[in-house]
Amino acid sequence: MIRRLLPSDFDHILAVVNDAAQAYKGTIPADRWKEPYMPSEELRKEDEDGVEFYGWKENGVLIGVMGMQHVRDVTLIRHAYVLTSRQKEGVGEKLLNHLLSLTRTSDVLVGTWETAWWAVRFYQKHGFRLVSKEDKNRLLRKYWSIPERQVETSVVLKLTH
Question: What is the pTM for the complete model shown?
Fold first, then answer.
């Protein structure tokens, strides 16, 4: 079941993110990896910046999370994670489809690590297309608040209708 996550879900969101993010270890640039991957202060900041988190729960257990953030004239898909033990079961697809049904803008963007080929492929499978390097740099600087090093090592995909 998908529902908007509440402040009471905070620790569970962190647990899902940090479990699933282990896939990035050794894949993303070493200078971008940290333990935990998402500290609690970072999740609080994302919430304060307007990221709305949704989750897939089964038997009271949070299995997957995905956020969306309305920034100016676009919708950003943010922080898409499914527990390692529950990946490849369609949870991410269900969450993405749910969030896409809630978007209020015509442009939907997602950013991910350039070397996270599985994430790029997931979004491409669901109608997103990689933008050019020039557009990627412009979009990341305009709509995200990330360090320049992350801009250098990321890609942006745009939903094509």
Answer: 0.95
